[in-house]
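Data availability (excerpt). All sequences and predicted token strings are deposited with the supplementary files. A representative entry, Alpha/beta fold hydrolase, is shown inline so that the format can be inspected without opening the archive.
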Amino acid sequence: MTLTYDDAGPRTATTVLLVHGHPFDRSMWRPQVEHLTEHGYRVVVPDLRGYGTHKTEDTKTGLDVFANDLIGLADRLGMETFVLGGLSMGGQIVMQAIADHPDRVSVLLLADTFAGLDTPDVKQGRIDTAARITREGMERYADELLPKMISPKTRETRPDVEAHVRTMMRNAPAEGAAAALRGRAERPDYTPGLRNIAVPTLVVVGSEDEFTPVSDAERIHREVAGSTLVVIDGAGHLPNLERETEFNEALSTFLTTSGAKP
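Structure token line:
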């Protein structure tokens, strides 16, 4: 599978591969691409299968499929080992990738994500939503989701962020988003595997995150030995966009202290 991606920064530098969430695209990492490349890193940000500019004919895309796509992209770009980070569904894909390919990851970022299984109601909700957006498209779904994606403070003070998030969600291909929801509903429980993670790990969460609250991040932090937890005050589910300065500082500081210098 050939993914659409951006590849910025020196090719000989430490590489950071960042994985977007649902229903977004690679542009959600724009502040991090700018920040990290300014500090000398190489940053690769793909559109996942079925998202952004990437099309898919899948009706169900498992997180293992997404993870293998990422490893395939890394192989094509000559990335033997790399920093791997993801947010929300992207974080779950990252957990799948490090479980399947632990030798490829040097440092881990898990942002606003959840390691456990869905409740039966949440699982059915994903399946029902997949059917709905296949019928209706993304616009109404995006408008309903937006108030939960970013904090009230962000909506009040950052119209630029609200507009960007709305645009990404409305423009997401409905078929790809639906396929991901169906696959995500069947994902395994990543909690037991957290104890096997043996690389420096940064866990980040917005203090106002409604989808994956601070308690979810705290559980990941407890399970991953030696991990670092950072709570971004005032941010919702997308702290990398809502409070990009704080998020970028936390990430670049962690990369430096963990030995992943440019």
